[in-house]
Design goal:
This protein is mainly alpha-helical. The protein has a domain of about 110 residues: 3-Layer(aba) Sandwich (Glutaredoxin). The protein contains 5 helices and 3 strands, in the order ααβααββα. The longest helix is centred in the N-terminal third of the chain and has 34 residues. The protein is elongated. The termini are far apart. The relative contact order is 0.15. Keywords: Signal. Belongs to the AGR family. InterPro entries: AGR/TXD, Thioredoxin-like_sf. This is Anterior gradient protein 3.
């Protein structure tokens, strides 16, 4: 009996330590996986709910990027987004950032449909800023790589609107 429990205990310890090693490895890789290529220096939240909580707590706007891996327009925008220093810096310092590959249950995040890429801003008061739109009347919240300067202006607008409304 003694031998059996020692064996069981050592097997348990091996299982725990290998799980721990995997958890530690995962911990180090987390920002990379959450960034999904949109910017590895940016701190990304994992869920919309977490994003809302952090926005309210930090008094920063939440920026929600809807995208899909197999969407060429998303890939093109992602590349331009990740390569733009001004966007990366603002995203890291002034915003709560979330990129999603699925839709949320919040219908306010798809006022004109569920398409990708789609970028929306949510105020720290938890109001979806449907008034911050891109350049296209048929898809109000989409941006193309050449629209990066426009997106930067909209990020600044999202920041300005907080200051003036609180």
């Amino acid at each position: 009996i003694m031998l059996h429990s020692t064996l069981a205990l050592s097997l348990l310890l091996i299982a725990v330590s290998s799980n721990l090693a995997m958890a530690i490895k995962k911990e180090k890789r987390a920002p990379q996986t959450l960034s999904r290529g949109w910017g590895d220096e940016i701190t990304w939240v994992q869920t919309y709910e977490e994003g809302l909580y952090r926005a309210k707590k930090s008094n920063k706007p939440l920026m929600v990027i809807h995208h899909l891996e197999d969407c060429q327009y998303c890939q093109a925008l992602k590349k331009a987004f990740a390569e733009n220093e001004e966007i990366q810096e603002m995203a890291q310092n002034d915003f709560v950032m979330l990129n999603l590959m699925h839709e949320t249950t919040d219908k306010n995040l798809s006022p004109d449909g569920q398409y990708v890429p789609r970028i929306m801003f949510v105020d720290p008061s938890l109001t979806v800023r449907a008034d911050i739109t891109g350049r296209y009347s048929n898809r109000l919240y989409t941006y193309e790589p050449q629209d990066i300067p426009f997106l930067i202006e909209n990020m600044k607008k999202a920041l300005r609107l907080i200051q003036t409304e609180l």
